[in-house]
């Protein structure tokens, strides 16, 4: 029984150590997992739900992006599913470990409808792109 308790305590100590290292190196456990999955840029949230909004209005939508690697990474372009989204001026460079807000201007539809707009951010080199989404509905 005592050896079982010591085994459980050893496993718990290892988990606490790994989570601590993840927070120190990557800022959070989710950023560490993203790094291990081969991601380079992580968004604080990939979907921004605006809820019910006024039709034909301008909105600023901000995503906080984190570079989970140690080297700088450039955002070199964006492809938006609608001309109603204006991306920020690019290229944008994120230093290693840096989190920066990236703001898009969004123009809501003129008629009452549900909307779901996609944004694909391109990174320099052969790194995978980052996918974001803006959703909501107009009154």
Notes on the protein architecture:
By secondary structure, this protein is an alpha+beta fold. The protein has helices at 2-26, 29-36, and strands spanning 41-43, 47-53, 58-67, 73-80, 85-86, 92-94, 99-107, 114-123, 130-138. It folds into two domains: 2-34, no CATH class; 40-138, Immunoglobulin-like (Sandwich). It has a five-stranded mixed β-sheet with strand order 2-9-8-4-6, with no helix packed on it. It has a four-stranded antiparallel β-sheet with strand order 1-3-7-5, with no helix packed on it. Helix 1 packs across helix 2. The longest helix is centred in the N-terminal third of the chain and has 25 residues, at 2-26.
What is the second-level CATH architecture of the largest domain? Sandwich
Helix-strand category? alpha+beta
Q: What is the CATH superfamily classification of the largest domain?
A: Immunoglobulins
CATH third-tier fold name of the largest domain: Immunoglobulin-like
Rg, nearest Å: 20 Å
Number of strands: 9
Strand order of the largest sheet: 2-9-8-4-6
Helical stretch tally? 2
Shape: elongated
Overall CATH class of the largest domain: Mainly Beta
Name the helicity range: 10-25%
What's the number of structural domains? Answer: 2
DSSP strand content: 35-45%
* Low-confidence runs: none
H/E series: HHEEEEEEEEE
What's the average pLDDT?
Answer: 88
Question: Which keywords apply here?
Answer:
139 residues; alpha+beta; Immunoglobulin-like; 2 domains; five-stranded mixed sheet; four-stranded antiparallel sheet
